[in-house]
Specification:
- The protein has 463 residues and is of the alpha/beta class.
- 44% of the residues lie in helices and 15% in strands.
- It has 18 helices and 15 strands.
- The strands form three sheets. A seven-stranded mixed beta sheet has the order 4-10-9-8-7-5-6, with helices on both faces. It has a four-stranded mixed beta sheet with strand order 1-2-3-13.
- The protein starts with a helix and ends in a 5-residue tail after the last helix.
Amino acid sequence: MSIDLEGLLRSRDAERFSLFERHLNAQLVRVLRTIGFDVSYAHGEGPYLFDKQGRRYLDHLSGFGVFALGRNHPTVIDALKQVLDGQMAGMVQLDVSLLAGLLAERLNGHMPWLEKMYFCNSGAEAVEAALKFARYATGRQRILYCSHGYHGLTYGALSVTADPLYREGFSPLLGECAEVPFNDLPALERALTQDRVAAFIVEPIQGKGVNLPDDNYLAEAAKLCRKHGTLFIADEIQSGMGRTGRFLACEHWGVEPDIVTLAKSLSGGFVPLGAVACRRPIFDKVFDRMDRAVVHGSTFSKNDMAMAAGLATLSVMEDEGLIARAETMGTELQALLRDRLLPMELIKEVRGKGLMIAIELNSPRALRLKAAYTMIEQARKGLFCQLLLIPLLKEHRILAQVAGSELPVIKLLPSLTIGRDDILWTADAFESVVGDAQSLGGVWDLGRTLVGHAVQASAPARP
């Protein structure tokens, strides 16, 4: 008996939030309802989402960067259907996967100095594998990571993630991990000199805040790592796969890392898929004997659905010229946002590479505006950003995100397939929302409501 999935979804749709609240994360439901993001999306196509009333939304969140191809790309769907219809003999485990070999070959073609590939199920898993490989290959234990860096929430990845929000209450974490300031070469050199360091892991462009490196930072950091026998790991999970106008973001600065981690958009948004690309000597040290052929792996890591989706994703990127498109569209969008927003005193900066973009807010100078801004930020740091995102969604149907906890930064991660109409839609919407806030419009009434929620949320629980 087959399952009527369409009928099941239709008949139970009214319970979407109550089921999630009852059986999954009730606090997430509370957050969505508080900020007015409790929209029931019905389907997605390309860079757009559609609700049950058929209204179209421009998705600048893209599942945290997963949907670089947009949603439901027909080429990837076709590849997945071929896997299902082909009834392939996947995951025998005591065999090798042709699809995995083909995908590794295609990926290594974009990173020719990295000859070996390991597949897994997520970005966090990729980071875990990279840390293990680095420790074993170097015979060292210490790992350096950057302030404001984010690498995932499993124990190894969390141990090299700087934000205390994610770390609180989960200690002790992985030992021998130390934080160094981002963009600080002298601090990195001191840390490398003082300890025998296995690896330095860094996002070429930090996801939490969209922080860009200084022009010489990554190249000089790589040189320092080589000098001290330390492996250089580039976490390209969000910044890679063409998002910044290069296959890897580190290409902007001419850097060839020893290990690269990929995930998110690698499967076109359909199937969990992560990858670790590394230099051959690193890989060969980890898997150096026949009895060590299985010292690291994952049951579903080379499944046919994920491998086929990865191959199809690369084909779409190449056939549609999405890497060059990301650079072109990103340059145009950033220029338009700067032209519209920088004259407003609420905006400090528009920055980014390609279609990984940040709009950073600024404490205003005008007394009434400054007083209102300060009130909201004192209730909860970064709350004013959320205040702008609510009318952006409600009035202009653009979905975006705050770039990190307590950060006055809005991040845009649109599909690489967006067009010029979408860029104009974005610029018009931000100009309207920021302009309303700057003129002390209705957005401030919403602000007082959010302040009340923030105060209530931060109050200690009653005994």
